[in-house]
Design goal:
Blueprint: H1 2-12, H2 17-40, H3 45-62, H4 67-87, H5 94-107, H6 111-133, H7 145-171
Length: 173
């Protein structure tokens, strides 16, 4: 946790106290989710609820104008993963769906690269498992929350810059 907090302070800086508070709260949430999902194979609703309330409270106090963007990101990300969970219920749980919605609340538009990184990391680990264990490894369940947490951390640190780069390169370029 100390390393995560230190990296967050160094990367985000201390100029925007509200952004830093959101970042630190998100780091604590993501580490809790990662450890719980790895140990128990579940993402507790109470942890997500406390995280959502903390994120909404910090955002409302520090940058109330960002609430609509954050709400749209939370809804969009949650709905996107919900469709995947409905289409393939054995592959993803509703805890992952709720986690991504909470991440959208914290990250706003940066939730998009966070999801991309989370899916890429999960796919890479899955591919390595298949290469090492053969076709039977496809049936082995692995928690997805830690991959989403990794994506959320990268999204926190670099997500806005990634979105800006993408928009400038492909939409305005």
């Amino acid at each position: 946790m100390a390393a995560l907090f230190t990296a967050t302070v160094l990367i985000l800086g201390t100029d925007d106290v509200g952004e830093l508070a959101l970042g630190l709260a998100l780091c604590a949430l993501l580490l809790t989710i990662t450890l719980t999902d790895l140990e128990r194979g579940t993402i507790p609703n109470v942890v997500l609820l406390v995280g959502a309330l903390a994120g909404a409270g910090i955002a409302a106090a520090s940058d109330p104008g960002s609430i609509p963007e954050r709400a749209i990101a939370a809804t969009g990300a949650g709905c996107f993963l919900c469709l995947i969970a409905i289409a393939y219920p054995r592959g993803m749980g509703m805890g992952d769906v709720k986690l991504v919605a909470v991440m959208g609340l914290y990250l706003g538009r940066a939730v998009a690269p966070a999801l991309l990184i989370g899916f890429a990391a999960g796919a890479l680990v899955g591919l390595v498992m298949i290469v090492r264990g053969g076709a039977g490894a496809r049936k082995q369940a692995i928690p997805f929350g830690p991959f989403l947490a990794l994506g959320g951390t990268v999204g926190l640190w670099y997500g806005d810059a990634m979105v800006d780069w993408y928009v400038d390169t492909f939409l305005h370029g």
